[in-house]
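Page 37, continued from 36.
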């Protein structure tokens, strides 16, 4: 059963069509990859899904575990999309550098809290119980990513690879149904990338569906169950990793043709 579908989704910026009639269907429990050259429209597609940029045409359809039937979420603001269980990371890390690791991860719990603003003012037993429960979830998530030892450290003081973990932890602590990862291996070394693969598999075991953009082809072909390839905003291929690797259109547009390699 599909958890997310895009139907003829199109996004334009002035005279530039960044995403052109994109269709895809992400099944619950999949690790689904989107690949394509720089500027192909991959991140714009993610922005349309998560409400940052509303598409001019087409639909984004969502069916979470609590939904009796699919619902149209096209153009919803980001906070409403996140509250449905769709959360993301970004290609460029976006953390609060002067806040601690734990505080950064805690910020991902803001819409999972059950208290209202007046509970915090009066410090009711309900508000304390709710806050304690949220902090327990933060501790659990820090342990999952093996970064609890850095809980009190300013996140800006950590090495890049650990900051990537914090960003993923902040997303996962919100208990999403769909986790969208925008180039999660960017800037990671080989050992960190191998660890990332295991982490993503472990996240799926928690029942989370994963949709990712990635330029590391070894990672994509190893990790994903299904792939869509786009170029100039259009889908040019889709299928299992083995099929994508041998598709002439993909080789020419993204992986490089034999003629291109000869010229090098």
């Amino acid at each position: 059963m599909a958890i997310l579908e895009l139907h003829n989704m199109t996004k334009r910026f002035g005279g530039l069509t960044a995403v052109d009639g994109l269709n895809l269907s992400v099944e619950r429990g999949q690790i689904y990859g989107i690949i394509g050259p720089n500027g192909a429209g991959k991140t714009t597609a993610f922005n349309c899904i998560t409400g940052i940029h509303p598409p001019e045409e087409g639909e984004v359809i969502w069916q979470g575990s609590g939904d009796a039937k699919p619902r149209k979420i096209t153009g919803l603001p980001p906070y409403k999309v996140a509250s449905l269980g769709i959360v993301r990371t970004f290609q460029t890390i976006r953390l609060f550098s002067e806040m601690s690791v734990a505080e950064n991860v805690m910020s991902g719990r803001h819409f999972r809290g059950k208290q209202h603003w007046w509970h915090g003012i009066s410090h009711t037993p309900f508000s304390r119980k709710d806050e304690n429960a949220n902090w327990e979830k933060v501790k659990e998530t820090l342990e999952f990513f093996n970064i609890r030892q850095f809980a009190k450290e300013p996140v800006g003081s950590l090495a890049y690879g650990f900051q990537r973990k914090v960003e993923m932890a902040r997303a996962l602590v919100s208990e999403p149904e769909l986790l969208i990862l925008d180039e999660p291996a960017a800037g990671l070394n080989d050992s960190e990338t191998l660890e990332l693969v295991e982490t993503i598999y472990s996240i799926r075991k928690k029942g989370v569906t994963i949709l990712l953009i990635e330029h590391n082809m070894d990672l994509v072909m190893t990790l994903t169950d299904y792939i869509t390839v786009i170029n100039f905003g259009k889908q040019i291929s889709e299928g299992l990793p083995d099929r994508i690797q041998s598709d002439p259109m993909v080789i020419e547009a993204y992986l490089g043709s034999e003629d291109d390699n000869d010229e090098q």
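Residues 258-264 have pLDDT under 50 and may be disordered. Flag for discussion at group meeting. Residues 140 and 253 are 43 Å apart (CA to CA).
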